[in-house]
From TrEMBL:
SUPFAM superfamilies: Protein kinase-like (PK-like). GO terms for molecular function: ATP binding; protein serine/threonine kinase activity. Residues 13-275 form the Protein kinase domain. It comes from Pisolithus microcarpus 441. This is Protein kinase domain-containing protein. Keywords: ATP-binding, Kinase, Nucleotide-binding, Serine/threonine-protein kinase, Transferase. The lineage of its organism: Eukaryota, Fungi, Dikarya, Basidiomycota, Agaricomycotina. SMART domains: S_TKc. Belongs to the protein kinase superfamily. ATP binds at K42. Residues 367-390 are annotated as: Disordered.
């Protein structure tokens, strides 16, 4: 057989319903035919990924390094390709996103928040120990494996923006990427960034878990960026913070240290008093833990309403712009291709199909820290999506692992 024609094998999966859709990929429920195990299968159309192949290559490289190494990190179990698509099989997380699950609870205390942060931070430390920086930590990328939601089953997902490199070279990362409200000052400054950006994001997430809103919420993205660069935040309004301990506030302040060199590492943050419970969490006068849920839910619901209004305005503006441009022939062709290629991906039936199989669960478990990707993913293979020559483009689109219970808009985030 010619080297340019990789061997094919019978597909081991059957796909089911579509869980979500993004710009370049859809996510479908998939079942392994022999084991009956369910997965979230990201289906990436090769035609849509031309020029963006390095994003898929990067995500696979990161996930191969850390998969199955920590219980709170989503695992890439398998990946393979057909003539039209690349398939990535992840854990199927059915418990929903972090904050939706919190808001559905009957009670939620500061001790609950501390336990969540301790668990997530432990996974972040593991990622950092593997030489990886996540760069897009936020509540939407924290999923519960199943219902009922247990803190021990919170999972970090979406490694589309992650990078693997030695500490000495992290300063070379200067592109602006991530989700604005959770991005560290050094990302905006383009002075070079690395693992400390994840600790900053943990500070924002912790603030969010305690109050239901983020510390740098502003009317415009420019104002938000300026506040982040200056480290300008407060524990206000007071009604939201009356039942939050000084130890919790101190933890947030440590993580939100503007100077990345002075910011604690993930390992150091795990030793701070609030996490180790050396300081008692705030309790009400009757000796019972304060219930943070009423204020957290109130702030979160208000934030969701505001975000819906903003997204609506953005969509209307985008439609107006397109209408003003009278949709050039090129734009119309792009939209048509986008629709057709995604339809292609969604309609493909894996059962009884032969596929090019690059990876399986055994390889993940036996080779947790590979030097690189499989040699079968060769730049010379015309039928392989992971091609060379992407030129190191700074493309910040990203794929995401998927929560079955999440809204379609959150189920997959296009890379």
């Amino acid at each position: 057989m010619s080297p340019s024609q990789p061997a094919t094998v019978p597909c081991q999966y059957r796909t089911g319903r579509t869980l979500g859709s993004g710009t370049y990929a859809i996510v479908k429920e998939a079942i392994h035919v022999k084991t009956g195990q369910y997965y979230a299968c990201k289906v990436i159309n090769k035609k849509l990924m031309e020029g963006r192949e390095h994003m898929v290559r990067n995500e696979i490289a990161v996930l191969k390094r850390i998969s199955s190494g920590h219980p709170n990190i989503v695992t890439l179990h398998d990946y393979f390709e057909t003539a039209h698509n690349l398939y990535l099989c992840f854990d199927l997380c059915t418990g929903g996103e972090l904050f939706d699950s919190i808001c559905a609870r009957g009670q939620y205390t500061e001790a609950d928040a501390a336990e969540l942060v301790r668990t997530i931070l432990g996974a972040v430390k593991y990622i950092h120990d593997c030489g990886i920086v996540h760069r897009d930590l936020k509540p939407e990328n924290l999923l519960f494996r199943s219902k009922p939601e247990r803190t021990s089953e919170i999972m970090i997902a979406d490694f589309g923006l992650s990078r693997v490199m030695p500490d000495s070279k992290f300063s070379m990362l200067t592109e602006v990427c991530g989700t604005p409200g959770y991005m560290a000052p050094e990302i905006f400054k383009k002075t070079g960034h690395g693992k400390p950006v994840d600790v900053w994001a943990m500070g924002v997430i912790t603030y969010f878990l305690l109050a239901g809103y983020t510390p740098f919420d502003r009317d415009t993205q420019k104002q938000e960026m300026e506040a982040i660069i200056a480290g300008d935040y407060r524990f206000e309004p007071e009604e939201y913070w009356n039942n939050v301990s000084e130890a919790a506030r101190s933890f947030v302040s440590s993580c939100l240290t503007v100077d990345p060199d002075s910011r604690p590492t993930a390992a150091e943050a795990l030793q701070l008093p609030w996490i180790t419970a050396e300081v008692p969490h705030y309790v009400e006068k009757d000796g019972q833990p304060a219930d943070l849920l009423p204020h957290v839910r109130k702030a979160f619901d208000a934030r969701k309403t505001f975000r819906k209004a903003v997204f609506s305005m953005m969509a209307m503006k985008r439609m107006s712009t397109l209408a003003a441009a009278h949709l050039s022939p090129e734009h119309r062709q792009f939209n048509e291709d986008l629709f057709n290629f995604k339809q292609e991906s969604e309609k493909e039936v894996l059962e009884h199909m032969d596929v090019i199989h690059h990876h399986n669960a055994d390889v993940v478990h036996q080779d947790p820290v590979p030097a690189g990707l499989d040699e079968s993913l060769s730049p010379g293979s015309s039928s392989t999506v992971l091609k060379s020559g992407d030129g190191g483009k700074d493309v910040t689109d990203k794929f995401a692992a998927v929560s079955l219970a999440a809204k379609v808009s959150h189920a997959t985030k296009a890379m």
